[in-house]
From TrEMBL:
<feature type="transmembrane region" description="Helical">
    <location>
        <begin position="139"/>
        <end position="160"/>
    </location>
</feature>
<feature type="transmembrane region" description="Helical">
    <location>
        <begin position="172"/>
        <end position="193"/>
    </location>
</feature>
<feature type="transmembrane region" description="Helical">
    <location>
        <begin position="205"/>
        <end position="223"/>
    </location>
</feature>
<dbReference type="GO" id="GO:0016020">
    <property type="term" value="C:membrane"/>
</dbReference>
<feature type="domain" description="Peptidase S54 rhomboid">
    <location>
        <begin position="81"/>
        <end position="225"/>
    </location>
</feature>
<protein>
    <submittedName>
        <fullName>Rhomboid family intramembrane serine protease</fullName>
    </submittedName>
</protein>
<dbReference type="Pfam" id="PF01694">
    <property type="entry name" value="Rhomboid"/>
</dbReference>
<keyword id="KW-0645">Protease</keyword>
<feature type="transmembrane region" description="Helical">
    <location>
        <begin position="78"/>
        <end position="102"/>
    </location>
</feature>
<dbReference type="GO" id="GO:0006508">
    <property type="term" value="P:proteolysis"/>
</dbReference>
<keyword id="KW-0378">Hydrolase</keyword>
<dbReference type="GO" id="GO:0004252">
    <property type="term" value="F:serine-type endopeptidase activity"/>
</dbReference>
<keyword id="KW-1133">Transmembrane helix</keyword>
<keyword id="KW-0472">Membrane</keyword>
<dbReference type="InterPro" id="IPR022764">
    <property type="entry name" value="Peptidase_S54_rhomboid_dom"/>
</dbReference>
<keyword id="KW-1003">Cell membrane</keyword>
<keyword id="KW-0997">Cell inner membrane</keyword>
Amino acid sequence: MIETSSGPGRPWMAGPGRPWMTYGLIVSCCLIFVLGPASGLNPGYGSGGRLVEAQSTYFERWGVVPSALWSGAPDQPLAPLTALFVHGNWLHLLGNMLFLYVFGAMTEERMGRLQFAVFYLATGYLALLGYAAAHADSAQSLVGASGAISGVLGAFLWLFPRARVTSLFPFLLFLPLRFPAWAVLIFWVALQWLAAREADDRPGVAYLAHLVGFTLGFLFAWARFGRTARVGGAARASEGESQP
């Protein structure tokens, strides 16, 4: 459960409904990953060299290749959208989905399901588009929801500026630790950097896409909701992953 306290004796709860849009995005990304070649679980893609080739083809087909994006091909305008649901490896997927779960639920409840869905897709699309524009000659395929989730984090910081996140760490005997949201977000940036190093020549989302997404999310929340929608207090989230 995620809860925010807006002041003494006045806790703000996430509302009677559940964040079904956030859950739907998480399930969609996980299913697409498991069924695709990057998970290594689908025997239809083979193994060894055949699997590596299938992964490369898959990422180029559904990801964003900047040099191809500006080629004028009719299917390319959809590439930044499909790339949001494709991930390069297990670390890439789990890190993104964990942060989407922790921060997306409260953001969705504040925005509303439909507005949150449009916000998520538009921010992710523009984040990848921004990176592709800055690296127009690159042939590196870009995949992942990091740009969209960065937008969620930016909006979260505006809407819940004094939130604190409590997480359970398995490697510390599930000791619950509380952190300011901004500290968790710094950790998230470090996690993405480590994931990019681990991925070697496999696709990833560039740091510039994170910056574009985060900035767009923060500015959208500021312009759409203003100061009246901001909530202080503490956010609590219990997770069974190795990261907060």
